């Protein structure tokens, strides 16, 4: 059976499209995954510095002090910095921090677009540094945090990651 001209052209076009998708899609997927993984690595780094701050001073930085407090030379009697510099996400944007009365410590990244919500590279990533032991209902406490944030930087936490016990895991879908 021999294909006519337009059928051959259609077959060649489909084949070329599949080959191109096979070459381009892994590149796009790998870059998005890589950028997300870098943010996750930074979350761990910031979480460890915040834990050391708590261990040395008895408290996390308050919201006014924020993450910048980790780079201060003198912190509540502790001499030295917890971090030499604050990391930025893959797109050169800052990470955000919120301390809800020492009960919930949340870090987040607004992604490539620096706007709440988004998809793919612009998707918000949220990281739970600390959840106080008596916080049995995580989603209620995360919602309490989110209602206290300025709308311009309030993340859409569809996934919340946690570094508790040095295991990076997905906590809950909201």
Describe, in plain words, how this protein is organized in 3D:
- The chain has 174 residues and is of the alpha+beta class.
- It has a single domain (36-173), classed as Glycoprotein, Type 4 Pilin (2-Layer Sandwich), CATH 3.30.700.10.
- The chain is built from 2 helices and 7 strands, in the order αβββββαββ.
- It has helices at 5-57, 138-147, and strands at 74-75, 78-79, 96-100, 104-109, 125-131, 159-162, 169-173.
- Strands 3-4-5-6-7 form a 5-stranded mixed β-sheet, with helices on both faces. Strands 1-2 form a two-stranded antiparallel ribbon.
- Strand 1 and strand 2 (78-79) form a beta hairpin.
- The protein is globular.
Task: Describe this structure in a few short sentences.
With 174 residues, this protein is of the alpha+beta class.
Q: Which features would summarize this protein structure in a list?
A:
T2SS_protein-GspG_C; two-stranded antiparallel ribbon; globular; five-stranded mixed sheet; Pilin-like; 7 strands; Glycoprotein, Type 4 Pilin; 174 residues; Type II secretion system protein GspG C-terminal domain-containing protein; 2 helices
């Amino acid at each position: 059976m021999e294909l006519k001209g337009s059928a051959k052209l259609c077959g060649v076009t489909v084949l070329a499209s599949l080959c191109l998708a096979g070459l381009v899609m892994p590149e796009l997927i790998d870059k998005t995954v890589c950028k997300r993984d870098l943010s996750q690595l930074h979350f761990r780094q910031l979480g460890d510095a915040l834990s050391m701050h708590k261990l040395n001073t008895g408290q996390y930085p308050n919201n006014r002090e924020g993450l910048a407090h980790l780079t201060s030379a003198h912190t509540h009697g502790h001499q030295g910095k917890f971090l030499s510099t604050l990391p930025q996400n893959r797109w050169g944007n800052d990470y955000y921090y919120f301390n809800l009365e020492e009960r919930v410590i949340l870090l987040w990244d607004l992604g490539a677009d620096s706007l709440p919500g988004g998809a793919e590279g612009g998707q918000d990533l949220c990281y739970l540094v600390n959840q106080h032991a008596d916080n049995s209902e995580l989603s209620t406490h995360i919602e309490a945090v989110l209602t206290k944030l300025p709308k311009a930087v309030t993340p859409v936490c569809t996934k919340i990651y946690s570094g508790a016990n040095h295991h990076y895991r997905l906590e809950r879908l909201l």
